[in-house]
Design goal:
With 218 residues, the protein is α/β, with parallel strands linked by helices. The protein has a single domain, classed as Double Stranded RNA Binding Domain (2-Layer Sandwich). 32% of the residues lie in helices and 24% in strands. A 6-stranded mixed beta sheet has the order 1-6-5-4-2-3. α2 packs across α6. The termini are far apart. 34% of the residues are buried.
């Protein structure tokens, strides 16, 4: 019976997230020192269940690596995703992080949601998130936090009955101890193809995120 339960659990994991691929990856060498700071994990997703699953999964992965990590959903439960966020709210959040001694931020956002037919892709032309795409993030964490707090979603309609979904997720790591232009330590972009729900992919996706941001730079 235990063996059957194990096989069934593995089947659920594999079928809940059919394909997770790293689309792009970049980081500085000093990201290897991520374990030296108090780290906050943020996943400002509009889906509350997905947000909870992603923050907890990434948090646990970092903790397993010996990193002093915390989730935003537990430390700042009142900070919920909104359509827009004001400068005053950003400054208040900045003060909260400074007061709580947060030094590193690992932020995962939903950049894009695509839909495609089972026989023909209709929304797979998302392009390659090359290094040039990261140029806008060098303003520091708070600029990115204000611009992409919601994690904008754009979807593609399909005329066929069976429609699959592809999610583009981006994780960016910031060191708040440095000047704003130097805060960005690394970024990884992943595509998640046709999970049952975005939240159901959290465990598999988070393992890839943690592996990429903690592996050594050659």
């Amino acid at each position: 019976m235990k063996k059957l339960i194990g096989v069934f659990s593995l089947f659920l994991i594999l079928t809940s997230c059919s394909s997770v691929q790293v689309v792009d990856y970049w980081k500085k060498k000093d990201l290897e020192g991520i374990d030296e700071g108090k780290t906050l994990v943020i996943a400002p997703l509009s889906d509350e269940i997905a947000r909870l699953r992603f923050e907890n999964a990434i948090f646990q992965g970092l903790k397993d690596k010996g990193i002093d990590a915390y989730t935003a959903i537990s430390m700042y439960p009142g900070n919920k995703p909104k359509d827009s966020i004001s400068k005053e709210q950003i400054n208040k959040f900045r003060s909260q992080l400074e007061s709580d001694g947060i030094e590193i931020v690992v932020m995962t956002v939903l950049k894009e949601k695509q839909e495609y037919a089972s026989t023909q892709y209709t929304g797979d032309n998302y392009g390659f998130y090359g290094p040039r795409m990261y140029g806008g993030y060098y303003g520091g964490f708070y600029g990115y936090y204000g611009s992409f707090y919601m994690g904008g979603v754009s979807s593609y309609s399909s005329s066929v009955t069976t429609v699959n979904k592809k999610y583009i997720l981006e994780t960016v790591v910031y060191d708040l101890r440095t000047s704003e232009k130097d805060q960005m330590l690394g970024a990884v972009t992943l595509s998640v193809d046709n999970p049952t729900t975005l939240g159901s992919s959290a465990e598999v996706v988070s393992k890839k995120i943690v592996r990429e941001i903690t592996k050594k730079v050659n």
